[in-house]
Write a structure and sequence with these properties.
single chain; 626 residues; alpha+beta; five-stranded antiparallel beta sheet; three-stranded antiparallel beta sheet; 19 strands
C-alpha cells in the first residue's frame, strides 16, 4: 500500500518536550498526548480507523449520511433531445438506481476519503466444442475446471472429451447492468507526482482466488474473464482508463498523499479519541455507580442487655433476614417481623450525577463542526430565519460533493452510451440552492408568467417535468373529450328511442304502446297490478282463475296475455332498478305471468327498434336533431 508521504502522521505530530535554555525540560509537550500514540501511521491504518469509527459512532455516521443526501436532488440530462433525455433518465433512475448509488458512494467518500466505482456491462458466457462446434450456455454444460484454467468435459453431440472453447458475448438484458463499488482496502494507485495521473490496480481477494481455482461454477459463470486471467497469472488487476471513477477528498498540496484522498476524520482524530474516552468512563459509571449497593445491619442497643450484637447469633439472624427478603420477593404484600431493629443503607448510586453527557455532546458538536457539519443540521433544529444563510454557508463548505456527483453522472452516462451505442450526453444534479430556496422559486414562477424564462426552468425546482405534465394535460383533455362524446351518443340514443316510441303510438293505436292508457287502471303508483287486484304485484300472488276484469270473471289466456302486455308496457317506462325490483316481485308471486311479461317486454323492444329503423329509412337516414 502507498504510505502517507515521507513519514507517518503520528510521527509528524509528536516530538520532545519544551526545553529551557539550559536544556532542562520545564513542561511536558502538549502535543504528546494519549491520542497521539494512537494516530494512524500508514494509509492502511487511516482506512481501518476511519471505517472503525464510522461503524461504531452512530452520531458521526448519521451526520455524514445527512450531508451526502442533502446534495442528492434531481438528475438533469444535458446535450440531448427530449426523447433521448427521457431514455437516459429512465435508465439511470430505474435500471442503475443512480441516486441510491450516489448515496452509497458519498458514504464511502466521507468515511474513507475515497470511493471507487465501475460499470459492469452484462455478458453471457458460452462453451463451444472445438470439434463439432456445438455451443451452449456455460450453465447447461457439464465440465471440470482444470488447473491450467481449461473447461474440460464430454461433448453431448460428438461424444468426445474435449477442452471447450470459451466465448463471452454481450447481453441485451439491461437489467443485468451493474454498478460496482470497489473496496479501498484492495485498491492500489500508481501515481505520477508531476502530472498527477493515476493508474488503478485491484488486489483480488484471496477468497475469490480460492473459489476460482476450486472451479466454483457460479464464480466462473459471472466473473469477467480478465480477472480470471489476472488470478491465473497471480497479478494485480489493472483497470483501463475511464473504466473506473475515483472520488477523493482533497488535501493540502504539501501533503504527499500519492493520489489518495484523506478523510476529514483524520484531522479530528484526537477529538474522536476524546469522545470515546468519555464514553468509556460513562460505561464504567453505568456498571458500578448506577445501581446502589444496599447494606442492612442490626441497630445497636442503648445498653449491654439490649444490644443484639451481644445476645443474638448473627449467622442465624442473617439467614432470617435473607429468608424474609426471599419471601418478600414472592409476596410483596406479606408481613415480616424481626426480634430486633435493622438499619438499611444504600451506598453509591451517584452515577447519574457523575455522568459526562454534556461533555460528550459538546465534544461531538466540536468534532462535527470541525468537519463542516453544523450541529443544527444533523440535529434537525435549524431555524427558518437563519436557514438560507446557514445552508448557503454549508453548501460552500462541501463543493467537492457537488462536483463529484456531477462528474460521476457525466462519467456513467459516457459509459452507458458506449455500452448501448447511444448518442453521448452529459448529466448533472439539480443545484441544491435552487431546489430549496423558496424566494428564488417564486421569482422563477413570476418570470415564467411574464414569459421571461421557460416553464421548464420555473417548474424544475419543484420536481415537475414539463414534458411529462404536458403529456398528462393532453391525456386528460383526450379522456374528457371521449367522455363527452359518449354522453352525447347516449343522450342521442335516448332521444331517438323516445321519438320512435311516440311515432309508433301515433301511427299504430292498436299497438302495445297505444294500449298503455287503457292499462292505467290496472297500475297504482307506477307499480304493475294484477288484473282484478287492488294491491301492487308485490303485495300478494295473483289468484289463479280470477277474471281479468273483476273478481267474478274467469281468467282466460287472452286476458292473461293482455294483462302481460299492459304490465310490460308500464315496466319499460320505469328506471332499470325499479323495473328489476318489480320483475323479482312478480316472479315470486306468479311465475307464469312473469314469463309472459318478460316475453312481451322483449317483443315490444324489438317492435320499437324495427319502427325506429323504418322511420330512419323514410327520413333518408337523418338522425334526430339535438
Amino acid at each position: 500500500m502507498n504510505g502517507l508521504g515521507d513519514v507517518g502522521i503520528a510521527t509528524r505530530m509528536t516530538g520532545a518536550g519544551h526545553m529551557g535554555r539550559t536544556g532542562r525540560e520545564f513542561f511536558p509537550d502538549p502535543w504528546l498526548d494519549m491520542a497521539s500514540q494512537e494516530m494512524p501511521k500508514s494509509l492502511m491504518n487511516v482506512l481501518q480507523w476511519a471505517e472503525f469509527i464510522w461503524l461504531t459512532n452512530g452520531t458521526y455516521r448519521m451526520a455524514c449520511e445527512r450531508v451526502v443526501r442533502y446534495f442528492l436532488t434531481k438528475i438533469e440530462v444535458l446535450d440531448a433531445d427530449d426523447d433521448q433525455a427521457e431514455e437516459y433518465k429512465d435508465f439511470l433512475e430505474n435500471t442503475l438506481k443512480a441516486i441510491d448509488m450516489l448515496a452509497l458512494l458519498g458514504d464511502d467518500h466521507l468515511c474513507y476519503g475515497n470511493s471507487f466505482s465501475s460499470l459492469l456491462a452484462p455478458f453471457d458466457r458460452f462453451l463451444a466444442c472445438p470439434r463439432c462446434r456445438l455451443e451452449r450456455p456455460i450453465e447447461r454444460v457439464i465440465y471440470e475446471f482444470t488447473k491450467d484454467y481449461q473447461f474440460k468435459g464430454l461433448c453431448p453431440k460428438c461424444a468426445k472429451v474435449v477442452n471447450f472453447e470459451r466465448h463471452d458475448r454481450k447481453s441485451n438484458n439491461d437489467k443485468e447492468f451493474k454498478l460496482i463499488r470497489w473496496s479501498p482496502h484492495y485498491m492500489l494507485i500508481q501515481y505520477n507526482e508531476i502530472t498527477h495521473d493515476c493508474e488503478y490496480r485491484y488486489r483480488i481477494p484471496e477468497e475469490v482466488k480460492r473459489k476460482v481455482r476450486a472451479g466454483d461454477k457460479f464464480v466462473l459463470r459471472t466473473t469477467p474473464w480478465e480477472m480470471i486471467d489476472a488470478i491465473q497469472q497471480d497479478k494485480l488487476f489493472r483497470f483501463d482508463r475511464d473504466r473506473i471513477y475515483h472520488m477523493k477528498e482533497p488535501t493540502l498540496a504539501g501533503f504527499r498523499s500519492m493520489g489518495w484522498g484523506i478523510p476529514r476524520l483524520i484531522a479530528n482524530f484526537k477529538q474522536a479519541y476524546y469522545i470515546q474516552v468519555l464514553k468509556r468512563y460513562n460505561e464504567a459509571l453505568a456498571i458500578d455507580y448506577i445501581v446502589p449497593f444496599r447494606v442492612m445491619t442490626p441497630v445497636a442497643g442503648n445498653s449491654r442487655t439490649a444490644d443484639p450484637l451481644l445476645h443474638q447469633n448473627l449467622g442465624s439472624a442473617r439467614a432470617q433476614v435473607m429468608s424474609m427478603i426471599a419471601e418478600h420477593r414472592r409476596d410483596p404484600a406479606t408481613y415480616h417481623f424481626l426480634p430486633f431493629p435493622m438499619d438499611y443503607k444504600a451506598l453509591g448510586g451517584e452515577g447519574a450525577q457523575m455522568a459526562t453527557h454534556e461533555l460528550i455532546n459538546a465534544a461531538t458538536d466540536e468534532m462535527l463542526n470541525a468537519q463542516g457539519i453544523p450541529s443544527d443540521l444533523y440535529k434537525g433544529s435549524l431555524q427558518l430565519q437563519v436557514a438560507p444563510t446557514a445552508l448557503r454557508l454549508f453548501e460552500r463548505t462541501w463543493p467537492q460533493v457537488v462536483s463529484n456527483n456531477n462528474g460521476w453522472l457525466c462519467w456513467i452516462m459516457q459509459a452507458v452510451a458506449s455500452a448501448k451505442n447511444w448518442e453521448p450526453a452529459r448529466g448533472r444534479m439539480q443545484p441544491v440552492t435552487l431546489a430549496d430556496d423558496m424566494e428564488k422559486k417564486q421569482i422563477l414562477l413570476q418570470l415564467a408568467a411574464a414569459k421571461e424564462v421557460s416553464r421548464t426552468t420555473a417548474y424544475g425546482p419543484f420536481g415537475i417535468d414539463m414534458r411529462d405534465e404536458l403529456k398528462r394535460i393532453y391525456e386528460e383533455e383526450r379522456q374528457k373529450s371521449e367522455l363527452e362524446r359518449e354522453f352525447q351518443r347516449e343522450e342521442a340514443d335516448r332521444a331517438q328511442m323516445e321519438q320512435t316510441l311516440a311515432a309508433v303510438d301515433q301511427s299504430n293505436p292498436g299497438s302495445p304502446a297505444g294500449m298503455a292508457a287503457q292499462a292505467a287502471g290496472g297500475m297504482q303508483g307506477g307499480a304493475p297490478m294484477a288484473a282484478g287486484q287492488g294491491a301492487p304485484m308485490g303485495g300478494g300472488a295473483m289468484p289463479q282463475g280470477a277474471p281479468a276484469g273483476g273478481a267474478g270473471q274467469q281468467m282466460t289466456p287472452q286476458n292473461m296475455l293482455m294483462q302481460a302486455d299492459q304490465i310490460a308496457q308500464q315496466l319499460l317506462q320505469m328506471p332499470y332498478e325499479a323495473r328489476k325490483s318489480q320483475m323479482l316481485q312478480l316472479k315470486r308471486t306468479d311465475e307464469a305471468l312473469h314469463a309472459l311479461v318478460k316475453s312481451k317486454m322483449e317483443q315490444q323492444r324489438g317492435q320499437a327498434s324495427a319502427a325506429g329503423r323504418q322511420m330512419l329509412q323514410q327520413q333518408g337516414g337523418a338522425g334526430p336533431t339535438m
